[in-house]
Amino acid sequence: MQQLKVAVLVGSLRQKSVTRKVARALTRLAPSGLNFSFIEIGDMPHYNEDLESDPPAAFTRFRSAITASDALLFVTPEFNRGMPGVLKNSIDVGSRPWGKSVWVGKPAAVVSQSYGGLAGFGSQHQLRQVLMGVGVASMPHPEAYIGNAGELFDEAGELNNPATAEFLTAFMAAFQTWIAQQRRQA
Description:
By secondary structure, the chain is of the alpha/beta class.
């Protein structure tokens, strides 16, 4: 079976963030056949078209990583009822220069989390709207909203909630199916 390359974009910059823990758990619970690469987004300057005359190395590295991927996994917290600015900036960087977007047609899954019960609902829906605008084929269902996420991991950062592990395993299996469906239609 062909290994599919999945770029993982985490909307939190902290290395020990719950968002990053959720992302790692997702990659560990995924079926075989998916190969994950975490694409770091914190070093990119804010998008500015003036920079395109000599694009920063961070822009070039990011665009190349997304282009080389077969699919995308977005894992995001919610900041003030929306997605983090660093995540939006990465989408802007990948969508430019005009006519050279690295996003078009890529299958994706979106997972949001929060320490509270709303589970990043606002962030996920804002992110999905932006992804639609750049031509990403986001998996419509199942949706993954991980509430009270701070309680789901042990001291070592490992997922310790069997019901959540079962849900995330099923979610990643559905994501693999979504990727296959989108690749057949391409």
